[in-house]
Structures are given as C-alpha cells and as structure tokens.
Amino acid sequence: xxxxxxxxxxxxxxxxxxxxxxxxxxxxxxxxxxxxxxxxxxxxxxxxxxxxxxxxxxxxxxxxxxxxxxxxxxxxxxxxxxxxxxxxxxxxxxxxxxxxxxxxxxxxxxxxxxxxxxxxxxxxxxxxxxxxxxxxxxxxxxxxxxxxxxxxxxxxxxxxxxxxxxxxxxxxxxxxxxxxxxxxxxxxxxxxxxxxxxxxxxxxxxxxxxxxxxxxxxxxxxxxxxxxxxxxxxxxxxxxxxxxxxxxxxxxxxxxxxxxxxxxxxxxxxxxxxxxxxxxxxxxxxxxxxxxxxxxxxxxxxxxxxxxxxxxxxxxxxxxxxxxxxxxxxxxxxxxxxxxxxxxxxxxxxxxxxxxxxxxxxxxxxxxxxxxxxxxxxxxxxxxxxxxxxxxxxxxxxxxxxxxxxxxxxxxxxxxxxxxxxxxxxxxxxxxxxxxxxxxxxxxxxxxxxxxxxxxxxxxxxxxxxxxxxxxxxxxxxxxxxxxxxxxxx
Amino acid sequence: xxxxxxxxxxxxxxxxxxxxxxxxxxxxxxxxxxxxxxxxxxxxxxxxxxxxxxxxxxxxxxxxxxxxxxxxxxxxxxxxxxxxxxxxxxxxxxxxxxxxxxxxxxxxxxxxxxxxxxxxxxxxxxxxxxxxxxxxxxxxxxxxxxxxxxxxxxxxxxxxxxxxxxxxxxxxxxxxxxxxxxxxxxxxxxxxxxxxxxxxxxxxxxxxxxxxxxxxxxxxxxxxxxxxxxxxxxxxxxxxxxxxxxxxxxxxxxxxxxxxxxxxxxxxxxxxxxxxxxxxxxxxxxxxxxxxxxxxxxxxxxxxxxxxxxxxxxxxxxxxxxxxxxxxxxxxxx
Lengths: 490, 334
Fold this sequence. Notes:
The complex is a heterodimer. By secondary structure, chain A is mainly beta. Helices cover 6% and strands 45% of the residues of chain A. Chain A contains 4 helices and 20 strands. The longest helix of chain A has 14 residues, at 10-23. The model of chain A is unreliable at 1-31 (pLDDT under 50). Chain B is mainly β. Chain B has an 8-stranded antiparallel β-barrel. Classes of the chains: A mainly beta, B mainly beta. The interface between A and B is large, with 60 and 49 residues.
C-alpha cells in the first residue's frame, strides 16, 4: 500500500494544472467544513478519519500536509451524501409562565403574538457535497503541492445564525444543533505544500481560505409608521482571510509512521453595521442610528492531531487522537459559549483482500464540548460515536492507476436530556434577562413598573419566559453518510 | 485466522450499525420536570369589600368625592392605523352645593394616565399636575331629590396645560400659525420649556399647550355614587378645545396626529369618600382633608371603587363605525 516515490512527467504538469484550478476556485470556503465530521476522501472516511499518519492522496491536504509526500501525482473527485434522523424534542411547558398581554408599551410582547410556534427540531434535511483535489510534485522529487476542496450542492437548510436563549422566540422559536448545519455544510478550500526533508522526516504547511465578509448597509426611513417602505443600500466587501495548517510526518521504522497536524481556528465573520436615518429623528443626539452586525458562522476550533500507524504487507492499523480547543469557541452571535476542550480518539483498519482491492473499517468517538445547559442558554450537542466501512479498488490503465472507493459512516448521537434548574434569587424571584445572566431568567421581573399605573404588573408576577429551551429538551438521533470517489494516479 | 465470506463480513458490520441506530433513535421530550404550573393571583376586577355599609341618602352633595374619568380621542395615524387613546384622570372633587342647588366643584387631579400611541407612552409629571390643578367649576346642577336616578350635570370644566387665557372657556387656543412665542403659551410648570411638559420615559419630552373642555352628565346610582358620561366628547375634540405641540426634545415627540371625536367612549364615576352618611372614609390621618396620597390607593380596580374600561381601537377606524351597535358589542379590546 505504500506509494512509490514521486516522478516527474507530463502527467505531473497535468496534476499541477488541476492543483492550480483548485487554488483558483472562487468558492466561498473555510477550513474543515464537511471534512471535520465526515473526513476527506473515501479512504479516510472509511477508516474512521484516522489518517494523520498515513494519508497518501490529496486527502492529506486536510489530514496532514506533510503526508502529501507519500502521494504520487493524483487528481480525483467524489461526493458525500448525508441523511439523518436527528431531533431536538422540547419538554411541554407548564402553565402560567407565558408572557401575558401587557399592552402596546409593555416590557415584552405577549407570548400569543409569536410569529412561529415553539416547536421541535426534527426536520433537518439531507445534504450533498462534492469534493475534489489534486497533488503534484512539479517535478521536484521531495516536493508536493496539493489542494482539496468541497462544495455543498444540497444543504440541510439550517444555515443561519441563532440565539441560544429567550431571544430565539422571536425568530425560529426552535433550538438548533450547535455544531451541525452551516458549520459542516459549506465550501472548503485547503492548499499547501510539503517537503520530505529526509527519508524519515517530512514537513507540510498550508492554509485554508475563508472570506471575512464586511457589511455596511444604509437605511433611510421616511415614516416610522411605514417600516415596510424603506430605502436600502447594501455595501458588501469580501476580503480573504487564511488560517494556517501545519503537518509533520515521521517514519521511524519502515512499517511505522507518526503524524502530527495543527489546524488554526477559523470562522466566517459577518461584521459591519446598519446606518439608519429616520425622518423626524434627525435632531436626536444618536442620529443616525447605528446597528452593529457581528455574526460568525462555520466556526472550526483550533485542533492538534496526533496519529500513529502500523503497516504490514496486507494490513494497516491507524490510531488518531484529536485535541480540539473548544474553550475559545464563540457562537453565531460572537458570544462566549463556555465550551470545554475535547479529546477524541479514532481508529482505522485497512485489509488487502486481493491485490489492489482493500477493505476498510474504522470508528471514533467525539465527546461533546457543550456542558450541561441547565440555565439560560440552550446549546444543543451530543456525544457522538462513529462507525465506518468501505472498500477501495485499483485498476491499472496503461501507466496510470484508476481508483474507485466508497464508504459509509454512521454517527450515533447519544441521547441527552436537559432540564432547567429552578435557580431563584433569595427573595424567590428570578433575575431579569440581561447580559451576564446565565441562570433561568425572567423577561418581566416582578418589580417591572407599569408606566400607566405606576405599579408592578399584577398579571406578570412570578416567572415569565418564552425561552424555547425552557423547561427542558432532549436531543439525539443518528447521522449517516455515504460517499463515492474516483481518482487517477499517474 | 478464519476468513469471513463477503456475506458474513457484511453481516458482521450490520450488527453494530443496527445496534447504533437502535440506540440512537430520536429522543422523546423530557418527561414532566420539576417545574409545576404557576398560579398568579389576580383580582378579577370585581369590587373589593371596603367594609362600608350602604350609605344613607343625604340632602346635599357637599363633601369630598373621588372621581375616575375615562375619556377617549381617536388618533388617526396617517390613515394607516387608528388608536383609541384613552385618558384616565383620577380626581379629588370638593363639592359645595348652595341653597339653590347650584354646585361649586373643585377638581384636583392626582393622576392622569394616557394610553400609548405607536408604543409611545406619555406620562404626566407632578409638575404638570400641580401647575394645572385645582380647577374650580361652578354651574353644576342636580335634578333635586338626590334619590336613585336623580340627574347630575357638571359645570363646564376647562383644564389648561401651558396656557394662560383670559376666558379659559372661549378664548381661542394658539395654533401652529401663532408660533411658539405666542404670549398665551406660558411655562406653567416652570421647567424652562414652553407650555407644559409631557414626559415619554426614556424617549423624549413634548411641550404642549392644550385646553381640555369637559361637560359631564350622569345619575345618582347610590347615595354615595354618581355615574355618567361625557356626551359632547372629551377635551381636545370639542369645539372649544385644542392642542398645540409647541416643541419637543426630540422630533418623534413633536409628531402631530389627527384627532377625531369619540364621544360615546367617555364615562365618569364619582364616589363619596368623606364618610358622610355612612359613606367610605379614606381620610387616613383623620385631619379632615383628603390628599392625593390618601386617595391614590383607591384608584386601582382592586380597591373596588372603579373599573377600567377597555380601549377599542377598532372602533376608531371609520370603516368600523358601529352604527346601531353598542360599543360593548362592537368593541374588540386592544
């Protein structure tokens, strides 16, 4: 299974062209993406994504850039399809906690006025992503340049920012899986180079591309009672940003390899502001009004990956361990999420059934970085166990090798149940919902004064909350992935 | 090592996969949590037991009364929406009745509550209350017997906010054509701004000059209670009234809306509270004078003296003019 040393030739130039095409791809892209969950390439996906020490095709651009030195000139493409039955079920709300009608100038809009009813999340659709990549030596024996990219064709539909507290009642009025959806369903482009410094040491460096979107919108409102009729200009700029990836590959013994990879964290930032002018308010001190935009989507954590593989004539066993720095994760509204770092193991096994026909199997465990959500926030995530299987088949075509591989993965999300804590203040009330409050909070605190009467609202004593995650929720289900890949080595 | 056949290999893989699928079926929602149903004790709005026996019939209306006036103007928000702007005024009324039965009534407003328009809630500050009231009215009459069903009509009540008029009933109110420097506009509340200041908390202040004319007509429903309406409509909408927003701290508060009559929506209730004839006595400190501090706790419906009527903005829309239909039937409360 070990590849032969790289060669230079016309085919190398073709591979270089394919690499350049990938480099010039205009796709909106970022690090990780679908590769973070399903892996890059059918071989890696079938082997539980335990590939850091032995990736030997363009998939090495994701797993470990240094491992590109194991690859020949190669170009390939494939697809990833997913289906799932993941669900978030909301606990029934006991009576008496809705926000009553407190009038037009009340401190909160009545619960009866929600545009969308509070509901379970069980309609996450299937997705499909195509990917491709290439590696070229450019005729230099110990050098490799490579790229791998993915473009989603069909997404599950959950591609939006969302709040994880009571504010979400005014938008979808649902809960959302924090680490699926947009985070793994977006275009990805990773490019890099590797050099075999000695027979036993190779180093790779690269970048993943991410646009950093800047918005400056201009709004003019001619009448405060005709808010549907506004003059709007949108200013958009998309400067590029890159995150570094670094890889190291050691070969201390002809049958043993050790790989290490570092991936910097990255997010798609939507930053800027809406500048709003309202006729009639032009003499105010705050005119024009500025509404800041600070959204981040598709966040990938900083990762350190270590891998070890042991290879014989017919078998390959690989172990990976990934340390993901979730503790600095910020959610889609750029709020500190309070996640914990995780350590996730993976294992892969490859067995040569017959010459050039390989059977692959693997698995991994991803502990959730999300702590118990018994307070105000409702980040939803589950521990995940993944099993994978697949095969690879090579055919000699002239001086080239045509490869076909497939894989199937099943991710089981361990059921997780959350019940909110009844954390009252010493006087038996609940704190006002405001920045910094992390416990279950009251949208109409008992001491809220009705300006019309000068007294507290009698009908809003006790706790009033429309938080979709209150009083609790469960999440779980499974996620399946199937992929097919064709590649050409020359 | 024995080699599995392809079929057995698939079966070997299918078993853990099936187990994983079975173990990871979509979850049920959490069962009933520790959160119990919440009961909020709210007075249904009925009269509280004030501990007062039925009052005796007296030969005069002399004495101290509380009056709760709820009146309405329709606000036309640029023809887009219509708002029933309720004004609820809570008065202490000191009444003297001469030998001819003519009433002299002194109104002291303890609280004026204005319904919000487009989410803007105006509040009437103490400075405005104290600079506007008391207002003394003469000319009120009764039909004599003061028995159940006896009629009552007030004298014309003119309430001037930020205005100094020689004839408070008939002098014209300045308009935008007269400009903010018109000498009839005075800084009555002495806050340095023209007219009287209405406060929109956390928003802005409006400086207004306004006259509100009111004529009340009702009947005695009990020896200590008069109930009635405001048949000509309330305040700014009748012929002798007017409103001029002189200025504002923020253009939003200077927005001028179209006002239109809503004459069927005004009502008042007056309750004797000086203890005469066995009526309720709210003179908590026993000094013989009923102050706003003593009166205000009796304003709320929970106290059992007065009830609040709903605002019905739907009836302000000309398209919903309830011809031949009572307000109660046609009202869709806001």
